[in-house]
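Sequence in, structure out. Go.
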Amino acid sequence: MVNKQNVICAIMNNAPIYRTEIARMTDLSIPTVMKITNEFINKGLVKETGKGESNGGKPPLLLQCVNDAYYIIGVDVGTTNINTIMMDLAAHIHYQCTIPTDSKRQPKIVLNQIIDSIEQVTRQSGLDSNRMLGIGIGIAGLLNQNRTGVVFSPDFGWEDVEIIESIKTHFHLPVYMDNVTRAMAMGERWFGLGRDREHFLCINLGYGIGAALFINGDLYCGDSGSSGEFGHMNMEMNGPLCACGNYGCLEALASANAMVNKAKFYIEKGVTTQIIDTVNHDISLINAKIIFDAAKQGDQLAHEIINDAIHYLGTAIASMINIFDPGLIILEGGVSQAGDILTQNIQRVVEQKRMRHAGNSTKVVASTSKQIASVGAASYLLKGLVENGGDINRLYSKYC
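Output:
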């Protein structure tokens, strides 16, 4: 299955391309490449698009993907917004909608919002269901073994919330759900900064904090599927209470929510800061972006809040480098868009805290896509199609 994924990715990223080039890029034999590409051609996912120059023999044929063979829906269920896209097989986004998540995050209301958002992009597209490959969903929290519901999500305040069955019943399409940070990593692997990386780590810096790890080109999920709860690494024995119920978690010290709570605390204590002027003295409007913007303008409180968060993040990331030695660490989520004030300072702390000679080549970068969670959620269906040789019936039997 990995061979098929590597072949289709080589075509996606380098089309038009010869079979011999695919063989060279993937380290596969020509007969293996021919067998795989012929299978994809028969399923309508790849087409021959012309002939190259001949060196004396039969001219080689060029290949490219049929990007509009199917469309996929990807849903990023966030604590603030639900972002839904419809993309083709090359991750070109054709339709999208964003709706605010229910402020109380009531499961039934959020589930109806997910269904409504999918209906919106479906109506926009005007496409028949037979052109839809399926629906991928990314959501924060621990999922059950079958990936049908959320076992526990501190960000949403949920326990044992079933999600998939209602969506399958409503749309009659294959549906796959995973933790949102793993969805981000999947998007990076297929279409983002992780395309050429066998080992990389994604860290989601948003309302909460999560992580996802690719090892040898495969997404690591752990024995029970609960890997990636990076935000619940204990950093301070007597630290603040975390939404998970423990004290001193990284998420309680360095997430966007933690930074906002700290800003509110000091403002209520009477500390002078331009943050309060920015929100017209309504502290409920404070968010992480406002804090970062204030720091860039020289605000002392904002600067201290961010420095504290970066200290904890950099220290935790250094520990991950010491354990896993990833060549690349991709920062995801809303906080990752803060720019150099975040990435360069995290890299500085990492250099101070990692073990000497460990992770010498590791780079910390921010994701280049704001839609990577939705794209990644949709990519699970594409991965499933590729692994099944382009047979949509096998995909339906697995996820419907």
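Check: The two ends are 21 Å apart (CA to CA). The mean pLDDT is 93.
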